[in-house]
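DM from R.C. (forwarded with permission)

"hey, sorry to bug you on a friday — could you get me a structure for this? deadline for the figure draft is monday and I only need the backbone to look sensible"
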Amino acid sequence: MSFPPFQRHRLAVCSATLLLTSALGLAAGPATAADSPQVKHYQIASSALEDALNQFGREAGILLSYDPSLVAGRRAPALRGDFSVAEGLQYLLRGSGLTLVHQGDNNYTLSKAQATGDADGTATLPAMVVSGAAVSSTTEGNNSYTTEVTSSSTGLDLSIRDTPQSVTVVTRQRMDDQNLTSISQVLDQVVGIEANSTSALGSDGISYMSRGFSVENYLVDGVPRPTGIYGFTEETADMIAYDRIEVVRGASGLMSGMGSPAASVNLVRKRTTATPQVQINLQGGAWDMYRGEVDVSGPLLDSGRLRGRLAAAYQENDSFVDREHHEQQALFGVLEADLSDSTLLSAGFEYQDFNNQGASRGGLPLFYSDGSYADLSRSTNSGTDWSDFTRDSLNLFARLEHQLSDRWQLKIQAEHKSGGYDESLGYNYARWIDKQTGAGGTLYMTRWAADQEITAFNASLQGSFDWLGQEHQLLFSAFHADYANEGDNYPGWYNGTMPVSLPNSFEFYETGYWPKPDLSATGGTFGSDVKTTAYAAAMRLNPTNRVHLLLGARVSDWQQDDWTKTAAGAKTTTPVTNENGVVTPYAGLVLDLTEQWSTYASYTAIFEPQNEQDISGNTLQPLEGNNYELGLKGELMDGRLNATLSVFQLQQENLAVSLGPGFVTPNGAQAYRAEAGAESEGFELELAGELAEGWQVAGGFARTTTENSTGDHINRYIPDNTFKLFTTYEWDQLLQGLTVGGNLRWQDEAVAEDAGPNGEDFVQDSLFLVDLLAKYRVNEQLSLALNLNNAFDKTYYSGMQYIGRYGEPRNLVASARWQF
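My reply, with the result:
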């Protein structure tokens, strides 16, 4: 007997599945996909829906039969993590218009989706919309140091290999393994990102550099924060609320439009889970550090159509620096509701509260007045005992995701964030002091405080279409935000009331004692109002299976007005920036060389309104330039390992360069000048993911040189060459349950130019830092870990320019983590 092609294909699929099921002896008892408690781990790459279903059926041990015409031409998202049969299949079928029909025992078929059941009365599984972020992008539970999908570069959901820029994703697993609980700790570990921390966390002396320039672009779930306005960045954020951190090095014009070409940092929040889970993490460590975390998630209704998550963290610790005391708390909650089989509504809040008491805005002198290097203790504190930095915020957010079809999705986001900062500053600033008498320091005192608000809306339409026999991706987005900043005027050194010469800095360092002056508001207020609107489009064209062209542009309006108001209420408004219709183009080309390797090239323009002022108080002209990048990317080990080699060049005009200590604007801020023709170039090599079963790795090498228009090297206090590598290995036989790991960081020499009394340069030699990890899984619920940081107790500066701040000495953190 012969069969037509259609029937032959259908029978082949069913027969192959039956043979495999028989061979595995999976004639199990009468469990159903809807009620089976069995959860298995899956690693299924994004592929044709038919291939994904067949792979899932083999691994789950089920018999899945269907008419091939139902799945023809459809694709399934990547499936990574722990799922029951119902969760896994429903996710693979998401947006396909198909549903799963249980035929008894382990037998299932597919049919077109119906609201309640099939006409013959056969029960169908209730539709489940798994969290709107694809499992392939959500990193929680994937036990990996990489992810398959990121959208932080272009807005399109692309694999790291298909993204024509350098992207680092710090996953939830890596944050847990390295004990990275704050965004500052995360950025310290990212390839190509270097900290320049000349003062305590929470002050304006904390900065991060990438490709020679300051990192100023922060986004949360893709919603950008304004650049250049103090207090709006996320530099003190606790990681309890976040699934992963995505860092795009270079300009990301399609996402932020107007922003620094250094890098953008996107903090991506956690989502609810389809199954109940409870996580408790307790930590204790050096300098009386105590931290507790609780994270509860799961369905709130039997149907699973309403899910919730609540997470909280509290941390308190002293520091290796005398008198510093840090306290931080964070609370995060989200609800997700399946309004229909294709519509997901989520809403939540995020609260962050940060306080650093006894901390200093200034670092320590690098030189004594005789020109010799200063040898102050690492515990030396240049701040008063009453100094403190406080930041708090409450963010309310909502998101609606609607699957218009199996190929198009609409997403609408809204958020309102309110909070602010309050800093009482008292610190001894000394570029150099007398080695014998301690003379040469000046005490600066003031208060900075402001209330801040963000109201933002973002809408995007993303999908795919067929043209000339190929599938292509398209994205449209619209964004609007209002940023407001308002604060009182306080007395300070910039109006000449409080700079005090210290007769002996050594005595001050011992106690930090100085009477706190009256820092009450002096009358009058100041502020900034920013309104920005942007429209963007991005397209990924696939002329052939191996050639992929990305084209896009963002059109932005940006209006910023600064204002002051006297105590009598007279208001003066000063326009700072009024830019309309600024076009930021983007172009990228990806060429698939083999099944695993691709080469790419990309270009984007740079345009960033600046808040820095010259010595006369005039705002610098916007930063403009171009970003070019070439690279090679590999997706290895069935997508579990990503490798990137990139070569880049940045060209900028009007780069803000500090005039140095003593040069301030009329309002007391640091004065700058505009550097013409600054250029940065270099290369980066990065590896992230699984080298072999149980062996994870993340890290790489970066080289950057930055020069001005005359060819002089600038920003030499940031090392040109850096290397970072973190790796873990989980034993599976002899020492089952044990994971060991290590972290190596190396940098070449860094130079603080003209830091000495006679114009001497301060040189920090090349440096190796080693961290160690040991983790033991006692059982399925409990694991214990030890993190030893700076294992060889190296003395070094974590930031330096005209002054410096030491990096952390050797310290140990112990953790106990329960998961239910």
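R.C.: lifesaver. The helical segments are 5-24, 49-60, 68-71, 85-92, 172-178, 183-188, 253-256, 505-511.
me: no worries. The radius of gyration is 28 Å.
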